[in-house]
Specification:
The chain is mainly α. The protein has one domain. It contains four helices and no strands. It is globular and about 40 Å long. It starts with a helix and ends in a 14-residue tail after the last helix.
Amino acid sequence: MLISPIFLVVSCAGLLIIFLANLIVGLYHGFGGRHYWFFQLEHVLGGFFVIMFFQSLFNSHLISLIGLAIVTLVWECLEYGAAHISSWELFLPLDTNS
């Protein structure tokens, strides 16, 4: 049973906004490199919207937390891969400061 379809829409919109802010402001313009709190804020808000998404779908705290754990593990593995796998550098923006 859905809690409310509005939570599903808000959580998807919030995740999309965080994703676009990360790409445009954080990575392309380098805001995240100058302000450490930017990526920390995105992680906290991302977790909030992911848990809102799962809670609106399943209405179970346990399933929502398991879903959050899975999304977190996959996301952190992708971040690690992007930072340490040299072939992934093709998909990352170039450093224009050097």
